[in-house]
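thread: overnight batch results

M.L. [08:02]
morning all. the overnight job finished for the chain we discussed friday. pasting input first so we're all looking at the same thing
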Amino acid sequence: MPEVNPALRGALDDRRLSGPIGDLVAGTQDRVLANFAGRIHERDILAVGGGSERAALLFAHGGAKVTAVEPSETTLNRLRHRAAAELVKIEFRLGDPRALSLPDRSFDIAVGLRLLMHTPEWRRYVSELCRVAERLVVLDYFPVMSVSLPGAMVRRVTRTLGGRSATYRVVRHAAIVEALDQSGFSVRSVHRQFVLPYVLHRAIGSRRFTIKSERMLDHLGLLKLLGTPVTLVAERSASLNEPPADGAAWRRH
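M.L. [08:03]
and the structure it wrote out:
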């Protein structure tokens, strides 16, 4: 199971997305998810992990048939309450993201946000998202080449010395591409959030500063090189979408 305290995850995400910078990040994430997913009405969409809570609600509001899987009953109940308050229908399941009790290719899209960086055996987690997705997989991660690296190193040292610190993994982009490729998926599009640390943007608390500074850094080519977190959408390889040679029925929407 992920090593983040599930009772705190929802509160931390709410705090992370509060205030003017949080609103900016949340709005950007919604637009990115909508662009990645395309048409969602009546589509079967899987949202895995507490970080995908906003995605589950966003897609449910758009008319998708959403299933939410969470390893924590506490976080699952939190999402149940939010879905009820927002009058949207979501199917809820308790389960391990690394071993989903779901059939192969049972969803058009599988989404897993803010989970890879905390999940032991992250390759199994990526493999499971790909296994249950017919068409697209959306996930995010913190890349090695970014301002996230020092924080990840500090947390690792803290844990090594016996201190308490949640896993905070940084991953090479090539490793993510390789893991997706092994499951028959290829990266279709990538979005990078910030060059400067998010905590700095929150401390300053100015949308104007965040937009102008990140736009300038993007023009300098630094966003493509150092931007974090990275959110990507991967598509099942075309060769794996062909009907079986024996003429057996193939799941289509």
